[in-house]
Recover the amino acids of this structure.
């Protein structure tokens, strides 16, 4: 259903702009062009870069809200987790928003609603594994037509006329392709099959590429699940053009890596993160997740290609060109969470087209994106082994030699809290019953007497999550936010009534078998009482920084700077045990996307925290992109929950960011300098 | 009008007024252990799927305890938290739990958060918790 609220005037000038845009090519790997923001990542290589320079360190602090758009009534109830990055093309801003994942078109200068499209999917929508407004949408034009494409919570691909919001009659069935149909020969229940997608489709070479997402995989209902696959559809007709199987079937390359015929029943292995496209090379880059069960692989022995692999395929055919598995036989929930970043750099004096993949594990993997060869050697090294019955561990894992890991990994005593000697002593005592070790230390079968769990950073509690990073095509520096947070990786027998084909569930002997989901992330309570016992009087067991932005030069592989991102959280700032101590800015945990402009790196703080005025809220911060020095901040009433984007309109640079969280429902906020 | 009634009415209004204005925090023993136990059961049935059995959160849903959660809610009133739960949760069937059930779940959250129980159950009626402030550390 679409409501057109105002008929946009298609002036000659606007049409000329469209034609110029089409002839120039809207997409590339060199940032967002012409002051627009035509794809989720700014360009098809997800650089999240715009060469705009009106907003600078000198004036960032004077930014003011130009307009705001509240999303409450787009669905039957307000949403508090608006994760979208809007697009801006031809003076219109497009986004998904609201609890039913509606699509809105706004006047980019005023925020006025032009049209809205929503799909009430009833029971199918309610059964969706990935609900709410999603990460956004895709835009396509051939210079005549303009289309908006998005995936509904119920897993249907919808094409809308960008001018009116009406479904495109010639696409699929009345504008819709049912993604639960024709899905790698699987017969799926159209209402209840637990598959969906919350990332955006991506359009390259007149094809629209779509991945798949599932319920989170801590404790699967069965070792059987829907198989992920990536599909490409003709952007004009919605006709299926190719399917890339992420779980190779008999005869496919890699099928033998699924031992004991586990390919036959295993599922997941989808691509729920953003896909990147290089139209010039005619290639797409697919970041693949884990197979069924995030923490126990007894039912899927082997390396199980293409799990946790970066796969490059031919854009036109979907045929694999190369792949690199980042994690063999994964049991840490290290699925690839974000867009591969396409960058053109110069290494040892040689121009090279690379793809750089940020990760949950805090490694940045960099490859020649034509050949798949690592730019700096990636070594197979022995890793710690475990003793969970039925598990078959990989003896080695790939370790990039450069860049160094940009976030702390695993856990060692050196990571423990050290604000005071007493707190450190308590932390040391606390970890006695846990297993700690370097990256790739496996989960343990949990015992109350110990080990209760493996404690690890940069695993399920990720260094980098879905927002991914940014890249500056001029300076060749990549920026990525990361978190230091501790997950408990423990295995327990399944609770009564659970499916017999899942031998272990994730949990600990202290908390018991998790009934359904459960992540094992750091669980603390307010005042130092313990549920799982890995906080110290309510403080994180690790020392800060808890969150930071990292700048990495892709010509050299060197980390250029790292700065804590986010004011010290209230829980630390006001802790009774820390009275009188001067705690430098610690940064905060969160899923944070960055934006790079001509001079700045821009990102909102994660979560609520102290703001300079004392008002409850969160700051949108800017850093000097060369040095990481503070370059201004502006108040927001709620934290960034989507990633910021920017554009130029009528001579003015706008910054738009989705904010929400706590009691503050989803809102798009547009900042610009005063007139 | 009966004078006795007037006196009673004024006295009641004054008492209510005072009660409504008395600032309280989550440290004031606002729920019973029995209520928290009911809430734990409900939480296991309706909430843990996404937020985890220990309220630790997971990929698709945030933690409902711990430093990050309480930093995010510091200074807010408990009514706002109850309302957020009541209107948006559980995500697969928002609004399907009664006020009393939501209050039970909130009691479980307070219990898990280390806040003390008291003699009276948490009151889920509209407005009842609007003067209760969330403070992660005991004032």
């Amino acid at each position: 259903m679409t409501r057109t609220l105002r008929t946009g005037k298609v002036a000659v000038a606007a049409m000329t702009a469209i034609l110029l845009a089409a002839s120039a090519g809207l997409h590339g790997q060199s940032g967002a062009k012409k002051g627009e923001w035509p794809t989720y990542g700014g360009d098809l290589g997800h650089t999240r870069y715009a060469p705009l320079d009106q907003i600078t360190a000198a004036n960032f602090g004077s930014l003011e809200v130009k307009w705001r758009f509240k999303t409450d009534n787009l669905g039957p109830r307000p949403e508090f987790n608006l994760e979208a990055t809007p697009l801006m093309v031809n003076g219109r801003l497009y986004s998904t928003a609201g609890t039913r994942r509606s699509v809105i078109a706004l006047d980019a200068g005023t925020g006025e609603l032009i049209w809205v499209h929503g799909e009430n999917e009833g029971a199918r929508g309610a059964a969706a594994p990935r609900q709410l407004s999603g990460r956004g949408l895709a835009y396509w034009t051939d210079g005549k037509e303009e289309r908006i494409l998005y995936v509904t919570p119920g897993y249907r691909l919808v094409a809308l006329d960008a001018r009116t919001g009406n479904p495109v009659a010639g696409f699929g069935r009345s504008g819709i392709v049912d993604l639960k149909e024709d899905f790698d020969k699987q017969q799926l229940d159209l209402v209840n099959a637990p598959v969906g997608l919350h990332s955006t489709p991506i359009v390259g070479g007149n094809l629209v590429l779509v991945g798949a997402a599932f319920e989170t995989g801590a404790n699967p209902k069965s070792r059987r699940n829907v198989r992920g696959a990536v599909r490409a559809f003709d952007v004009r007709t919605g006709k299926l053009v190719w399917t890339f199987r992420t779980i190779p079937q008999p005869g496919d390359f890699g099928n033998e890596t699924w031992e004991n015929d586990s390919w036959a029943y295993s599922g997941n292995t989808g691509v729920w993160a953003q896909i990147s496209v290089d139209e010039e090379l005619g290639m797409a880059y697919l970041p693949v997740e884990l197979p069924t069960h995030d923490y126990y692989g007894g039912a899927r022995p082997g390396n199980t290609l293409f799990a946790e692999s970066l796969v490059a395929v031919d854009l036109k055919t979907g045929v694999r060109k190369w792949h690199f598995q980042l994690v063999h036989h994964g049991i840490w929930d290290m699925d690839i969470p974000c867009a591969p970043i396409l960058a053109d750099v110069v290494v040892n004096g040689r121009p090279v087209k690379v793809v750089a993949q940020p990760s949950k594990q805090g490694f940045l993997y960099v490859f020649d994106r034509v050949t798949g060869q690592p730019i700096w050697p990636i070594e197979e090294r022995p890793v710690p082994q475990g003793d969970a019955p039925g598990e078959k561990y990989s003896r080695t894992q790939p370790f990039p030699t450069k860049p160094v890991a940009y976030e702390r990994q695993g856990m060692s005593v050196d990571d423990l809290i050290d604000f005071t000697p007493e707190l450190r002593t308590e932390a040391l005592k606390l970890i006695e019953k846990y297993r700690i070790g370097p990256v790739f230390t496996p989960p343990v079968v949990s015992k109350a007497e110990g080990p209760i769990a493996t404690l690890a950073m940069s695993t399920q509690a990720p260094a980098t999550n879905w927002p991914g990073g940014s890249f500056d095509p001029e300076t060749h520096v990549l920026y990525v936010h990361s978190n230091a947070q501790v997950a408990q990786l423990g295995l327990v027998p399944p609770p009564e009534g659970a499916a017999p084909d899942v031998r272990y569930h994730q949990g600990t002997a202290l908390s018991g078998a998790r009934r359904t989901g459960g992540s094992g992330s750091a669980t603390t309570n307010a005042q130092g009482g313990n549920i799982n016992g890995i906080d110290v009087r309510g403080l994180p067991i690790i020392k800060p920084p808890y969150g930071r932005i990292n700048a990495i030069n892709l010509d050299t592989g060197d980390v250029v700077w790292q700065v804590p991102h986010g004011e010290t959280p209230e829980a630390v700032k006001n802790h009774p045990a820390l009275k009188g101590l001067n705690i430098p800015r610690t940064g905060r945990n969160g899923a944070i996307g960055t934006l790079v402009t001509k001079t700045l790196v821009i990102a909102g703080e994660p979560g609520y925290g102290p703001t300079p005025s004392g008002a409850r809220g969160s700051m949108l911060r800017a850093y000097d992109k060369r040095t990481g020095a503070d370059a201004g901040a502006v108040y927001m009433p709620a934290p960034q929950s989507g990633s910021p984007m920017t554009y130029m309109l009528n001579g003015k640079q706008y910054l738009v960011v989705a904010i929400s969280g706590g009691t503050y429902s989803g809102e798009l906020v547009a900042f610009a300098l005063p007139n | 009008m009966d004078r006795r009634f007037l006196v009673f009415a004024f006295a009641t209004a004054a008492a209510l007024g005072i009660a409504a204005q008395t600032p309280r925090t989550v440290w004031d023993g606002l729920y019973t252990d029995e209520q928290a136990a009911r809430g734990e059961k409900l939480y296991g049935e309706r909430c843990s799927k996404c937020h985890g059995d220990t309220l630790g959160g997971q990929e698709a849903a945030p933690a409902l305890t711990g430093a990050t959660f309480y930093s995010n809610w510091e200074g807010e009133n408990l009514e706002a938290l109850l309302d957020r739960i009541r209107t948006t949760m559980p995500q697969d069937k928002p609004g399907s739990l009664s006020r009393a059930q939501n209050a039970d779940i909130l009691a479980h959250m307070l219990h898990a958060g280390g806040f003390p129980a008291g003699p009276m159950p948490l009151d889920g009626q509209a407005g009842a918790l609007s003067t209760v402030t969330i403070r992660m550390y005991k004032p």
User: Anything to note?
Assistant: The mean pLDDT of chain B is 84.
